[in-house]
C-alpha cells in the first residue's frame, strides 16, 4: 500500500498563500521556440533576507578590486557575488509554468532569498525571448536574474533520437554548456530542472562540499540497474565498457546538480561530453537523451548529496507517466522527472496524490481572472 503523505506536506499544501496580481504572459506548445502567448501568471510575494544574511553587492576584499568599484554596477556585482547562491535553469514556453513554480519554491524556503541569483538559459532562436523575460520580471519584479541565449546549433547536430521526444530538445542539453554560457566570475552553480519544487533552504544544497577533485555533486542511486542506461552494443565492446573500470559508477539524475564551474572549465568537460555524443551518432550506445553522456564522464567520480535533495521520478516513467510514491526518507526537493508533469495532470483533472504538493506553488492565473 502507498505510504501516507508526510504531515508536513499536507500542512504545507493547505497554508501556502500565493496572492493574485498582475503579471506577464506566456504559453505552451510543441515547439518552445515559436510558442504563442496565451497564459498569464500572478505576481509572487516578495521574500526578504534574515538579518544574518551577508551582502551580495559588496564582496570585494582587495585594494585592486576596490579601485575598480566605479567600473562595476550593482547588477554586475550581484551576478558575480561569491556570497550569492547561484541557480541555473533552462527557460522555455513549454515548461515556463514549472519554472515559475520552481523559482517560487526556492525563494519561499530560502533563509536569504534576496541573495539568490538565477541564471536562465533560453534558446537563442526563441521568438518569444523578450516575453520570457517579461514573464519572469512580471511575477518576480525583485528577482536577481539574467537570461543567456543558447545557440541550438551548438548541439543540434550531436543529438540522437531518444525514447521520448521531449528529451531531444536542444535546450535539454544546455546544462552541458553552463560553464561557457555563464560569466567566468560565476564559480559554482546549482542546476535545477523545471519540473521540481524545493521545500528546504537551497543554501544547504549549494554548500555541498565537492572535495579536492569532484566537478559536480548529486544524489547517487547505486541500487539502480546501471547497465540499463546503455545498449548491449556498448557493454559488449570492451573498449567502451572499460570506461567504467576502476570506477564505482552509479546512476545519478542530472536534474539536480551542484557544479564547480571553475573545475569544469579547467577540465574542458563540455568537450568530453560532446565526444560521447559524437560516438553515439556513429553507433547506438544509449537511449536516454542528455543523461548518458553525463554518466559516461562523471559516474563514480561525483561528490555525494543526500537523497532528500532529489525525490525524483514523481512523473512516472518515460512511457506512461504513472503515479509514484515518495522514496523512503526525508524530503527537501520533489522532482517530477518522467513523462507525467503535475500541471498537465492537474489541468486534465487526473492528478496523482503527490501533485497536490506542487499545486500551491503554481502561479498560473485562472482563465476567469484574465484581464481583458
Explain what this protein looks like in three dimensions.
It is found in: Endomembrane system. Pathway: Glycan metabolism; pectin biosynthesis. The structure is a single chain. The protein has 14 helices and 13 strands. The chain has 372 residues and is an alpha/beta fold. The chain has a 7-stranded mixed beta sheet. It has a two-stranded antiparallel ribbon with strand order 1-2. Strand 3, helix 4 and strand 4 (116-123) form a beta-alpha-beta unit. The model is unreliable at 1-30 and 59-68 (pLDDT under 50).
Key terms:
7-stranded mixed sheet, 372 residues, 27% helix, globular, 13 strands
Topology:
Elements: H1 7-15, E1 25-26, E2 39-40, H2 63-67, H3 74-80, E3 85-90, H4 96-108, E4 116-123, H5 129-139, E5 144-150, H6 153-156, H7 178-181, E6 188-192, E7 196-198, H8 202-206, E8 216-218, E9 220-221, H9 232-235, H10 238-241, E10 251-252, E11 256-260, H11 261-267, H12 269-282, H13 291-298, E12 303-304, E13 333-335, H14 342-347
Parallel strand pairs: 3-4, 3-6, 4-5, 8-12
Antiparallel strand pairs: 1-2, 6-11, 7-13, 8-11, 9-10
Pathway: Glycan metabolism; pectin biosynthesis
Membrane topology: Single-pass type II membrane protein
EC number: 2.4.1.-
Element-level helix/strand string? HEEHHEHEHEHHEEHEEHHEEHHHEEH
Strand-pairing-aware structural class: alpha/beta
The main sheet comes to: 7 strands, mixed
Number of strands: 13
Shape: globular
What is the helix content? 25-40%
How much of the sequence is in beta strands? 5-15%
Amino acid at each position: 500500500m502507498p505510504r501516507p503523505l508526510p504531515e508536513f506536506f499536507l500542512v504545507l499544501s493547505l497554508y501556502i498563500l500565493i496572492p493574485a496580481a498582475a503579471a506577464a504572459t506566456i504559453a505552451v506548445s510543441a515547439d518552445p521556440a515559436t510558442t504563442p502567448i496565451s497564459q498569464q501568471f500572478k505576481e509572487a510575494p516578495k521574500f526578504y533576507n534574515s538579518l544574518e544574511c551577508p551582502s551580495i553587492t559588496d564582496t570585494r576584499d582587495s585594494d585592486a578590486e576596490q579601485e575598480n568599484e566605479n567600473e562595476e554596477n550593482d547588477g554586475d556585482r550581484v551576478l558575480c557575488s561569491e556570497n550569492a547562491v547561484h541557480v541555473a535553469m533552462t527557460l522555455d514556453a513549454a515548461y515556463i509554468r514549472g519554472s515559475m513554480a520552481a523559482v517560487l519554491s526556492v525563494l519561499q524556503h530560502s533563509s536569504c532569498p534576496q541573495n539568490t541569483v538565477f541564471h536562465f538559459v533560453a534558446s537563442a532562436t526563441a521568438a518569444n525571448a523578450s516575453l520570457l523575460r517579461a514573464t519572469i520580471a512580471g511575477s518576480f519584479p525583485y528577482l536577481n536574474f539574467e537570461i543567456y541565449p543558447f545557440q541550438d546549433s551548438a548541439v543540434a547536430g550531436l543529438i540522437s533520437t531518444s525514447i521520448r521526444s521531449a528529451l531531444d530538445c536542444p535546450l535539454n542539453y544546455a546544462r552541458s554548456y553552463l560553464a561557457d554560457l555563464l560569466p567566468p566570475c560565476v564559480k559554482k552553480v546549482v542546476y535545477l530542472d523545471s519540473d521540481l519544487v524545493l521545500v528546504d533552504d537551497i543554501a544547504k544544497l549549494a554548500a555541498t562540499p565537492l572535495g579536492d577533485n569532484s566537478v559536480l555533486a548529486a544524489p547517487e542511486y547505486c541500487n539502480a540497474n546501471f547497465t540499463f542506461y546503455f545498449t548491449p552494443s556498448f557493454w559488449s565492446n570492451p573498449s567502451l565498457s572499460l570506461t567504467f573500470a576502476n570506477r564505482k559508477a552509479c546512476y545519478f539524475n542530472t536534474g539536480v546538480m551542484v557544479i564547480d564551474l571553475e573545475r569544469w572549465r579547467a577540465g574542458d568537460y563540455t568537450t568530453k561530453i560532446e565526444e560521447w555524443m559524437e560516438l553515439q551518432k556513429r553507433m547506438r550506445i544509449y537511449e536516454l537523451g542528455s543523461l548518458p553522456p553525463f554518466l559516461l564522464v562523471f559516474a563514480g567520480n561525483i561528490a555525494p548529496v543526500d537523497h532528500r535533495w532529489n525525490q525524483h521520478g514523481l512523473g512516472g516513467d518515460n512511457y506512461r507517466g504513472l503515479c509514484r510514491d515518495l522514496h523512503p526518507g526525508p524530503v527537501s526537493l520533489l522532482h517530477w522527472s518522467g513523462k507525467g508533469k503535475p500541471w498537465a495532470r492537474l489541468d486534465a483533472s487526473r492528478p496523482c496524490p503527490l501533485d497536490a504538493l506542487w499545486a500551491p506553488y503554481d502561479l498560473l492565473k485562472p482563465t476567469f481572472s484574465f484581464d481583458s
